[in-house]
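Incident review: delayed structure delivery

Summary: a single-chain prediction request sat in the queue longer than the usual turnaround. Root cause was a stuck worker, restarted by the on-call engineer. No data loss occurred. The affected request and its eventual output are reproduced below so the record is complete for anyone auditing the incident later.

Affected input:
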Amino acid sequence: MTFVIPNENSQPNPSPHDTNPIESQIMAMSTKEDLQRELDSVRANYQKWQAQGDQTAITTQTRLAQIIHLRANQIGVQLT
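Output delivered after worker restart:
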């Protein structure tokens, strides 16, 4: 087994939350109401992009919904 030991100047891989402000915002939410409002917005956007057939935007909205549900689970709330 080989282990790679980084040198002192190497930087860790950036967290997705460091590079995506929307994901950071979602992960910082701490109330059910904020998360539900964000999920409702994502659902509306998903429907809009689905009607236009924009697969990239649909994928993005799906990812955001997953992150919202992840955060809800972390803080122990259930969204509708």
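Verification: The chain has four helices and no strands.
Action items: add queue-age alerting; document worker restart procedure.
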